[in-house]
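Backbone shape codes
____________________
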Amino acid sequence: MIYTVEELAINDSFIAWCTGQNEADISFWNDYLQQHPEQLLTLEEARKIVLGLTFMLQKKQHELSADSFQPKHGLYVVPGKTHTDPFTKEHPVKFPRRKKVWVAAAAVILLLGAGVGFLYQHPMHQNSAVTSAPAALSVPAPGDNIRSKNGEYKTLILADGTKVTLNAQSELSVSDGFGTKDRNVRLTGEGFFEVAHNRQLPFIVQVAKYKIKAVGTKFNVKAYSNDTYSETSLLEGKVQILVTNGGQDQVYKTLQVNQKFVLNDSTTAETTQPKKQEVVPLSYDDANQNIETAWVDHFLAFDNTSLAEIKNVLERKYNTAIVIANNDVAQYRYTASFQNENIDEVLKALQLSYPFSYKKDGTKIIITK
């Protein structure tokens, strides 16, 4: 059966899939996507509407009185229940008043259309105006390898319902048995993971020097091969850092919310234990934007970051080659945030803080003292 955006936005089973509330619904809609790939864009548009609506209703609930636990204020709650047929047009509803509120609100949102999709793709921050282009969307099958180019973001919905946002110049490899035998992926580059809950099959992300184990959580992994460090940042839930010892994976560190594991290792030799590792708090800028995940909202955010590291970020985001011709300049450090600026505007702003010179030579930018 083929659905419209309007039908999906008020379908209880589809809402449960969007919000990760019911494993049966998650499994059903993932299967539906595999069987109807032509519906991918329709489902994603409806998903943005559902999550955008949830966000706004949650915000409204917080603005209400301290009695927000009462049913009349629980606007964003979607009844979690299993349907034998998720496509049935009429479902028994335990909370008819909330259903009416949801349908009425959804109708208003559908009139706004692209505005809610915009809200979901680019969560608004105070004094910000987000205009970046949306990420490309795909639904990889087990065994697939997905790559993003310089200047390109990709949004992936895995077979278990996990959402992955791939940063530029990244690659995600999905195991052959993903969703049935395991939930293993391998990452080179950077990805933001919103992991579907499944205690029976832990979610494992493998990078060059270690693994990250999660059950259902949100975290960011940055592990570019040309960076001198890798890091795992935890936003929700709990993750474990695993290292191989004697052929067996062992828990090396356990991260709590708002912590990140940083591995600094500029060597290329394979090691069984991380070098120069540490667990530190996440960083936030003056607008309360998380530095580690700012890229997901199409922000550039640097916190005491060397120009050598900034160079790598700018090359990936703007798809251009940058050469720093002076080692001293490469070690200049900057704290700054950018949103819609082009690469010239970014470089000129950095110059105001710690001066350097640059020129364009064909497709390259050369930075000198």
Remarks:
- DSSP finds nine helices and 19 strands in the chain.
